[in-house]
Specification:
By secondary structure, the protein is an alpha+beta fold. It is 23% helix and 23% strand. The chain is globular. Bound molecules: zinc ion.
């Protein structure tokens, strides 16, 4: 089973699995540092816009927009009981 499927993550199909992995890293970076400069998961452009549209406590929604390559995708992370196992 793909790692993202086991975690219940859904995302717009415009992102590849590798891009999703990078997108999740970007989201984690923003959560760790609200002022962090974020890199686009597709083109690496610094200055990715990340909008938190989460509907806590049910789910987290993030919209990623990049002025460099035109990326405009959303990532949905369901909240709930912890899932056993990490990203790897
Ligand atoms: Zn980009």
């Amino acid at each position: 089973m793909p790692w993202w499927h086991s975690k219940g993550i859904e995302w717009a199909m415009g992102l590849s699995a590798d891009e999703l992995r990078l997108a999740l890293a970007v989201i984690a970076r923003r959560q760790a540092d609200a002022d962090a400069t974020l890199d686009c998961p597709r083109c690496g452009h610094a200055g990715l816009a990340l909008a938190d549209r989460s509907a806590r406590p049910y789910a987290e929604w993030y919209q990623l927009s990049c002025a460099g390559c035109g990326l405009d995708e959303t990532v949905h992370i369901p909240l709930g009981p912890p899932v056993i196992g990490g990203l790897d």
